[in-house]
Amino acid sequence: MSSHESFLSELRALLSEGAVSSAAEDLNFYSVDQGPVVDLQLPLAVIWPTEVSDVQAVLRLAGKHGVSVVSRGAGTGVSGGAHATRNSVILSLERMNRILEIHPEDEIAVVQPGVINAELNEAVKPYGLMYAPDPASYRLSTLGGNIATNAGGLRCAKYGVTRDSVLALDVVLADGSLIHTGHRTFKGVAGYDLTGLFVGSEGTLGIVVGATLRLKYLPVSSRTLAIFFEDFRTAAAGVLAVGKARVQPAIMELLDGASMQDIDNRMHSRLRSRGGALLLIQTDGFAAQAEAEAVAAAVAPLGGTLYQEDPEEAHRLLELRRNSRGMDADLETRVGEDVAVPRSRLVDYIAATELLAARHSVNVRVVAHAGDGNLHPTFWIQDEDREGINRLNAALDESVELALAMGGTITGEHGIGQFKLRWLGQEQSLEVRQLQSRLKLLFDPEQLLNPGKAI
Ligand SMILES: Cc1cc2nc3c(=O)[nH]c(=O)nc-3n(C[C@H](O)[C@H](O)[C@H](O)COP(=O)(O)OP(=O)(O)OC[C@H]3O[C@@H](n4cnc5c(N)ncnc54)[C@H](O)[C@@H]3O)c2cc1C
Description:
Number of domains: 4
Largest sheet: 7 strands, antiparallel
Distance between the termini: 35 Å
Bound molecules: flavin-adenine dinucleotide
CATH topology of the largest domain: Uridine Diphospho-n-acetylenolpyruvylglucosamine Reductase, domain 3
Strand order of the largest sheet: 15-12-14-13-17-18-16
Strand content: 15-25%
């Protein structure tokens, strides 16, 4: 029996019926997430644990056989963080999907990693609460995946990113041991912040098998403003105007004309006919109306056309924005970026991106979580020849260098995964990268947890 065969037969003996598959369709489906594929590998098996003890048993067995473990939530990641690697298994946490506790007075929920973000929000709504971080993939992505990528979202402009809502974690380490980090209280500073370290670690330090999450009050009311401008740069200037008016919107999203056209084509909406760029702002809380009026006054000098939307239309517009990426995986000919720049540089970044795309003869469309300075330019080419792909890559490289030169980052929320490794050395010094490698070795000496990702 080969070593792989003996690993698989020991695995099947450890877990319950139906928890392991090596069927070709499962291996294919689970081999990639939504990110560009750099080096396609099929896993040896897909594993669906249902208990923490299953995860522990898998990690002990993988360690014994030297097999890598790639954890996976819903596979909506766009950086290749959940792509299979050579000699790996995919550990899908999707069946560990129970909400274990909701404690309204403490404003917390305790969840398993496979709970879908939107399901937690539905469950806490009757208590007047919400789980604030809402990636546009909130109807699909899991809380474990959100935690492992430190996901952002539309409401993060006001309520913070995933890390700000994670109080405690249960994590299975590479040797199969189970640790609990953090606390049920909002405050707590005992020792190093291991909870914060695991958030955003992309499955390279341990497997998240439970999380205690901070909830926030569901706002009593909200107002949504759709402000259409002639051009994207003026819309971006609106973001700074709102800041000067001392309003902190819950949501502040930007879409350029090409993104609106793309949404119209796919969703049969009519955004593009209303203007060349859209600034979508939502204020919330008891002062929602007063804040909306302050926003309207602040952007008026920029000359856009402002609509205060009724709740139904507001919901529709936000869903259109959430659908702006579509569900197609990135390709060699179409790549979505995730840079962030200081907000004061938004207008400069957008102007320079338009110019660089034209110089490299590639198409670009941009949506942005503008409240966070987090931009998602999508660059694409029509032709599939090598020369076109080289031009696309040159544009991607330049767009990333531009963000770094402005004091920004190569990834605001999607993570490094496999795809963004090529730029990491431009953002982080050698000393910082070496320190991260030493941390990785401390947690995972055999380097079996999601190797070749994140650092
Ligand atoms: C249409 C669309 C819209 C999107 N919008 C946003 C957005 O607004 N904001 C945003 O931040 N992202 C967004 N994303 C990207 C993606 O949805 C997020 O990165 C999300 O957090 C991934 O969750 P997932 O459950 O799909 O994780 P996966 O893609 O399955 O995994 C992501 C990473 O987490 C690791 N991982 C998963 N579960 C665990 C676990 N339990 N323990 C340890 N490691 C684990 C994986 O190994 C991988 O490295 C979007 C994606 C799509 C397709």
